Target: Carbohydrate kinase PfkB domain-containing protein
Amino acid sequence: MISHSAAKSLLEKIAGLRILVIGDVMLDHYVWGDATRISPEAPVPVVDIARDTYTAGGAANVALNIAALGARCTVAGLFADDEAGQRLARILGEHAIATIPTPGTGSTILKTRIVVQRQQLCRLDRESPPSAYAIEPRKIVPLLAEAVRSHDAVILSDYAKGLLTDQLIRIVTRLGRAAGKLITLDPKPKRQLAFRDLDLITPNRREALQLAGIEPEPGAPFPAEEVCARLHKLYRTRNLVITMSEDGMLLSSGGKITRVIPTAAREVFDVSGAGDTALASLTLALAAGAPLPAAAEFANAAAGVVVGKLGTATTTPAEILAYVKK
Model:
């Protein structure tokens, strides 16, 4: 694990950074309650609601993680003029996160989770078709060009909802390269997006297999070397970090495995949003000048804190420093 002094030094550098997040923003709604009886209308539990809470989800949660770690952040995504969009914008504003509302015809994505005695009972999703979130190519450059230039790094956060398209990724990559900016992506294979020559991608184990076009055999070990080689050949990404849940993080550069970092989690309550934390902290550490292994150690510690919390969560510098000190 990263040392206390190294984490402290890195966090001090992170505090001066500005990060642009582009992707599928959403509002996470939690309904907390208890269930002690079965409905007489159907064999389902009756939930007595105690309270409702709201937080930023998807790409907006990546932005929340960046702000929580002390950096400044701007997030671009579809904030519709509806109750969910207004609430999401307020939440981000409370954390000093600037927003760039992108044009679109869809409603703000809303995910409602019913949680009973710390266990998620079900999830209710409200969203529009992918075409409703996409940005017309001619509108992308004037909307994002200055934002790309004025930030230290760009994160593309894909939740397969439709905002990220081949054209958008191609244009943002071109803008970022021209300005010398770090560009990272959390890809979703479902979208089959065309991307190349990025600085970092962060799929999980299942996503890495899908991106590589490998059908896993039941019970077979993860074919790490083949996956890393294929992903480098297909996407020419400079660095690859595969999040492996309880097996930690697998690091690769140039198609070769460079390191496997064991998980830092001491207790796991909820993995919701842990991928957002890993993406945000990896990008911040790399933008602060850390080499990939040090950045991954830092991200591993940050994710270790977050999975010990219930619901979509973030971590702070103080929590990370206390965590690594133990």
In short: The CA atoms of residues 78 and 101 lie 5 Å apart.
